Amino acid sequence: MRASLIQIAVNEGESVESRRSRVAALVREQAGAADLVVLPELWTTGAFAYEEFGSEAESLDGPTAEAMAKAASDAGVWLHAGSIPERAPSGGASAGGASAGSASAGGGSALYNTSLVFSPSGDLAASYRKIHRFGFDKGEAVLMDAGEDLVTVRLPGTTVGVATCYDLRFPELFRGLVDAGAETFVIPAGWPERRREHWTLLARARAVENQAFVLACGTAGTHAGVPQAGHSIVVDPWGEVLAEAGSGEEVVTVDFDPAKAAVTREQFPALKDRVLGLRPPRR
User: In the UniProt record, does the keyword Metal-binding occur (predicted)?
Assistant: First the structure.
């Protein structure tokens, strides 16, 4: 399988409409060059452009979804289109997709950080509402609602587990995706430069501990004054870095054999030694 991670630069001065058109063209350029294309988190607005989340929020059939579905179909690729600020219908609705369950948005419309995955025919194959929202007591953590469902997508040759940015810090989410059959993790992000070492460290850790491929696509540029880490990365199940971007906008393309995850798990069956339901120490 060949994957292309498109590390988009998100900078002030470029409108959402212009960026959407530019990114769609970049996806189309992958026709015949990749089987799977991955975009970053919240590339329409920028992951730290909090004041734009509400004004730029879309539905799952909004302009970004429409443009990305067409680009995936034109290129004939599986497309993880990164994430968008989703405005859910009043009363809540499922994030949809082939393997997503239902998640309530509560009374009235709600915002979610929602990833979209399109098939080569342009169909919405799955969507994932980010479970772990970053910001502690501000930003995404207070402006957006939390998703509730783990999401996997079956691609030819591998089952993909979907996570987003801050999710990378929570290993139990990835264990859940492994239990759901995931052999490859796709992680779009808007990770800040000041914590870049954490980004690469955690990507390798999630690969090694779960014996899975990690395809982690970040952004370049500056989001609302926050410099981005870039350094999109592909890691194999042994923790070897197969490819890594620099700090600017670029496309990273890598060939990998999804079957290596199953082979690794068979040769070094550490996952079989998991001990679940441990009790807290007695006091």
Answer: no
